[in-house]
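Box 3.1 A note on notation
Throughout this textbook, protein chains are presented in two layers. The first layer is the amino acid sequence; the second is a token string describing backbone geometry. Keep the layers aligned when reading.
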Amino acid sequence: MKQKLLDFYRRHSCILFLAIILLWAKTYISYQIDFNLGVKGLFQHIILLINPVAGAVFLLSLSLFAKNVKKGHKILFALYLFYSILIYANVLYYREFTDFLTLTTIFESTSIFNGADNLITSTFALMKWYDFMYMADVICLFLLIRLRSSKLVLADERKFYTQPCGKKAIIISLCIFLFNLGLAEINRPMLLTKTFDRNYIVKYLGIGGFTIYDSVQTFQSATVTLEKSDIKKVSSYINQHQTTPNQELFGIAEERNLIMIHMESIQQFLIDFHLKDENGRSWEVLPFLNKLYHSKDSISFSNIYAQIGQGKSSDAELMTETSLFGLAKGSAFIKYAENTYYALPQILRNKADYTSAVFHGNAGSFWNRNDMYPGLGYDYFFDAEDFILTEENSAEYGLKDKLFFQQSVQYLEQLQQPFYAKFITLSNHHPFPLDENNSFPPANTADDSVNGYFPSSNYADQALEEFFNYLKLSGIYENSIIVLYGDHYGISENRNKDLTHLLGRDQDTWTELDDMNMKKVPLIIHIPGYGGGHVDKELGGQIDILPTILHLLGIDTKTQILMGQDLLSPERDEVVALRNGDMVSTFYTYIGEHIYDTITGFPIEETNELLTQQAEDYKEKALNQLSISDLVLETNLYDSYTPKGLMPVNRASFDYSDDPRRLRLESSRAGASNTSVYYLNQRISTSVLYQTDAPEYEKN
């Protein structure tokens, strides 16, 4: 065998052959050390071993169409460099998002990172010591190609670039791909036609295969048009999916102000969690939120899953505003910003004459909010332009939370009541750098991001307490319903095992079901004076927040297209669809290709046909929910359907360029009918009541 391998090398050794081997090896190594593809069994391991080959052969064989070996090698190196960058970019992206880069995500990166500085900072935070491996071979290949007299270079000239080998190499690569695809279809039927999970595509077809598949899907999705049958399909689904509200709770917050707090990166496991420092002292991470969570005036939920996709924070917003899922790839806030929506601000305006405003201490272009919010119907959008930002009071993604809330109240108090005000926090954002002004201790793990997550979350908790104190002093609190929700994970799935000892767990016993449970985020609906507070254990997701809130405000939702269901309804389905196609239900949890008993956590074997079929039925229901939501977005269905009692948003009436001035004008126009807190307080600002211990406040 050894002699055969040596003979094969002597016959075929050349730069092209070496480049293919190196690219295959690098890709396969990345599968093993940086990607968690869920490979099970010998058959899948064989597929994983084969799948980088077709892409490497196809891409590098394009260099064979060059006129001579020198030009061919330049093209070969450029293609090799491109593929290497593609692999490494996916490695970095996967480390944070446990997902693969799509074409849409690449195009949207300027809106996602909001500036080169944030992109560079985030990239460096994701790098590891062994990453030189991903570029060392590129340097070696470059040096080899420069040695024009080497045997490898001469072999290329003798064997390939003087003969019409390009077409043959392309055909060989396609044959390898078809063989690879055939094996994949045996193990995973309908791989390319029935999957929501990019992990499958990479596992079976490789990063190159996924990139081509994704590009085709991206261009196909741009051509979707609305058919009459689509409206009937959506209407039929909604009629079957709707539930009646809890009659005892329907309308208990009617005519109150609605304050929504979008909590950056707060996960459910932080509720009631105490961190022990190196001296054994116990530190409560979220003391204020814990009190709120267990308050007699709070309906809190312990089993709410973040259902975000690549749109991250924007997906969480889309779900809470419209009860539609984000996209399987990319962000609807960017791709479908011009769609027609009937979102929470517009619903409240039409149904109960609410004024609406959203507050965010970052640039309005972040996640394309400047373009999306007019379509959602927000009257005002206060972004970084409307706040005082300095180097001292800002974090990487904008104004620190304590100063953000403190500076926001000057606008909040001038909103006409009842109002809907949403606050998007941002201090608790990856990579969670340590703040020297925060005395809360970092965790002691091998990951700096994990270590910084706890003091960062504690700071966010302090900021929330200061804001609530202001609401009580200003008189806003008693006449409001306050909803707080976590937008997505702070600790990515790839870092969960670094948390195990902090959670009293062992890395060796940590499972993908534990990873699933880490997707839970807090949801707290606080209604001052309610008195019937409790912690609800019903399964649900962020998609369910909108119908729940509307029913508490006494607003009927029968004619609206909502993918979610009222979390408090006795008729609701406890089926939670994840954006990647995974599913959690009362009895079964579907993760990738594996089924678990939700209650016991034990896996359900394929041989148990009865339970497997029941789980499949639940998953089919979840996938159908995702498909209907995608259909609404992709066809811009709301442009052809107006829910009864609602009016389309007039985008032209919203101009966020000078909101402070517009707010003052609106207040003066209201005259004696002015209902703002500022006016009712005898035109004396309540902002002086705001108390913060932020050290940066003294410097303003």
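The chain has two domains: 2-221, 242-566+657-689. The chain has 25 helices and 18 strands.
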